[in-house]
Write a sequence for this structure.
DNA sequence: GCCTGAAGCGGAATGTCTTTCCGGAACTAT
DNA sequence: ATAGTTCCGGAAAGACATTCCGCTTCAGGC
């Protein structure tokens, strides 16, 4: 792949993340290409469907979340590391505009997203979970998969509910898993 | 309101429900007006924003769900009536295309929806819950509000997960509430 | 029953957005 | 340096949602 092409993809992802954050995921494509300093054609060359761009941005966030796990594991006791990481995930789902919407949209364009989330985050969560279980700080028998689904669903905000309600429910769930 | 106008509104809601069910909530407006035998102008006269139509269709489903509660209460023991009603609600959220999406969209256009759901369903659920508690079939201390939110969130399908997963999780939750 | 003003209707026209297309510019391997 | 790709930009096409307005239909008063 040509270096200028890679650079453009990078600019587009960065710009899209910014625009999605401020104007929502339904912002006109033009706004994104202008910010990226690129023509519309370039956007569509790399992301043939609008949904592809959204998917790519979300996948980056998922990657970033997965990458955060080792650092937390190194800094905190296993139980705390687990709790903090799950809160980070809940925050991602609760606050990134359009993340929960895409996840629950039912649109086939986003069909692969939960799978990607599972695939990327299950190992990260698995190792945190194993460490916490081995340290006796968590009751055994919880699968990463079920926990991820639960967080993904409980963390999604319902419009009109107090902000943070979903995150609190997740914290409650996690608290229930921990031994005192 | 003129009778023909009311009739048209009725046709539109009926048509919209059908089209949303088959082609999804993003179906072109023309498809709906054609099925309803009405011009586009008529659609926009009654539902100025597209979201208004979607909201209206969903609110009808919510009403229907609320209306189902008394019948169930009359036919079944309190605990079973509660379980069946919650399953009906979970099914509504899990299978009606776009219902969960609208609920979790974050779009301000749907901001009132969770409130409407709460307002309409809390009394219905409250009476089922009270009856089951009084009969000793359910542990006390659950509020209709929290239970409704939990079902609304857990019941929402994640694309790619086996169908029925959400409904099963709801059933599990309900099972946990019941005394044996 | 008929008349009349208001309420409502249809669908062409408008505006906004996504998506396509292609002539020309920019990169890279030789 | 050059040839051969690969990529780029932005104008044009297409698909929608939404608006607008002349014409039709209703309903209450005579």
């Amino acid at each position: 792949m040509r270096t200028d092409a890679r650079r453009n993809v990078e600019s587009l992802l960065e710009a899209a993340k910014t625009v999605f954050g401020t104007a929502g995921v339904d912002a006109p494509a033009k706004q994104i290409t202008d910010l990226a300093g690129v023509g519309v054609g370039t956007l569509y060359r790399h992301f043939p469907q609008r949904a592809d761009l959204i998917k790519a941005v979300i996948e980056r966030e998922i990657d970033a979340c997965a990458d955060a796990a080792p650092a937390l594991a190194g800094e905190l006791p296993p139980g705390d590391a687990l709790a903090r990481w799950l809160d980070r995930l809940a925050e991602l789902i609760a606050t990134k505009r359009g993340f929960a919407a895409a996840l629950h949209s039912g649109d086939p364009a986003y069909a692969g997203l939960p799978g990607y989330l599972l695939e990327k985050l299950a190992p990260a969560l698995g190792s945190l979970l194993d460490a916490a279980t081995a340290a006796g700080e968590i009751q055994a028998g919880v699968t990463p998969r079920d926990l991820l689904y639960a967080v993904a669903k409980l963390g999604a905000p319902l419009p009109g509910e107090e902000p943070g309600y979903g995150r609190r429910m997740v914290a409650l769930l996690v608290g229930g898993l921990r031994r005192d």
User: Anything to note?
Assistant: The mean pLDDT of chain B is 92. Residues 1-2, 4-5, 8, 33, 38-42, 45 of chain B lie near DNA strand C (CB under 10 Å from a C1').
